[in-house]
Each structure stands twice: as C-alpha cells, then as structure tokens.
C-alpha cells in the first residue's frame, strides 16, 4: 500500500518529469537534472517563506526574551512559562520546523531514487503515452554524459580504475569538492545577507566561559560549527555518490540562497552591500 502511494504520488511524476526534460534538452541528463532541481526547489518556496517569516518574528522577540531571562534567572519554571506565552503570540510551533524539513527530505529521497534508477537505465514507471512520444514505439535509452562526467560514476569508482590522481579521477573529485564549497558558500552568504553574526562574546576583555553563554549565543556557535562540518560531510558522501546526485546537490544549494534573497530582498540587498563594503576595505 505504502509503495503504491509512494510511486504514484512521488516517484512516477518526478521520473516522468525528468524524462520529459531529458528529451526536450537534446537528450542531456545533466541539464534535465538541473531544471528538475530548480522546479522542485520552487515548489518548496511557500514552506521556505513561512520559515523565513517565523524566523523574523522570533528575532523580534529577542529583547523581550532577554528581559525575561534577566527577570526570572533564578526561576526556570516561571521563565519557561513566560517564554511560551511570547511564542504563542507570534504563533510559534516547536514542531513547525518539521513542516519544512519533511517535504525537503521527501524531495531528496525521491530524486535519489529517480537518479539511481535512470542512471542504471531502469525506467519502470514511465507513463505509456510518454514512452510512445519519447521513443516512437522503440526502446528508450538515457544519455548519461554531461560535459566532462559520466553521471552514473563517482570519484571512488573512477579512481579505482584510473588512479586517484589521474585527470579522469580529478574531474570527479572536483565535482565532489564543489558540492562542499557550494554548501559552505551558500551558508556563509545566507548568514551574511540575513544579518546573522557569529562574533565571539567577550566579558571583561576575556572570552566568556561556556556556562556563561546565553542560549542564543550557544546557538550561534553551534550554527557556525555546523557551517563547517556539513560541507566536509557532504564531500565525503559525494566522493562515493553518482555524479548525477552531486550535480543536484550543487544546484539546490545555490537555489536555497537565491530563495532567501528573494523572500527578504530589502535585508538581503543591505547584506550584499555590506559584503561589498567589507571586500573594498580588505583590498585597501
């Protein structure tokens, strides 16, 4: 039952959409993946918009939360009750992040399955009318070549064949590193345009001890650490993953940054101006 729902609602539509663009884009699987990745990211735009608006509302509560923490620092139970009252005013739901995270996880899971099957030339699930249109009644084959890469292969299997430092292998390694770089650059850029600062908090000219840091400051430090850990983890995964999946990750990373820019353009524009000013100061 679950497999029927999964296939008919998620897998089959994405598979056939990818095949349509593969045909329209001159049998080029790479460009088809890029277009489908953009479309699916745009479909998630309303969820990202809600998340951005909630983040903005929560940021507006910071002065009030700081005041409550100071007032009830010796009464954690009362502090928790008052914070919950504030959260309710803006409609904050602790489980709201799942509303954004779960659809993105579904999209990634569907695309991984579609890409894996398409690159193995497993086209089970193609709509009959679409197969007739794409193949004129004959067999349908997928061109997995894109620029310098065979999208079915990864750095690990190419290096096993040609050697770790062969030109053929380094091209796939470059693609894997580009995934990590795009994620780091997107996270850094998004934090800057959204005005998120990760400055070290000092007290009396010395760094605060870990136990003296507020929850907000701890969250910023964790966010900064995550910004470095995630790209390295992704590179490790991409080294062993098909280049088709790596290509999708690169596109969706940059699309995420563009979405945040569009949803909060005034603040984003100010953030970009600040970045340009910082670069000019560094050059001087």
Name some characteristics of this structure.
single chain, 284 residues, mainly alpha, two-stranded antiparallel sheet, globular
Question: What do you see in this structure?
Answer:
The protein is globular and about 75 Å long. Helix 4 (62-71) packs antiparallel against helix 5 (76-89). A hairpin with a 2-residue loop joins strand 1 (145-146) and strand 2 (149-150). It has helices spanning 2-24, 29-43, 45-60, 62-71, 76-89, 96-119, 128-135, 155-162, 167-193, 215-240, 243-263, 265-283, and strands at residues 145-146, 149-150, 202-203, 206-207. It contains twelve helices and four strands; from the N terminus they run H-H-H-H-H-H-H-E-E-H-H-E-E-H-H-H. With 284 residues, the chain is mainly alpha-helical.
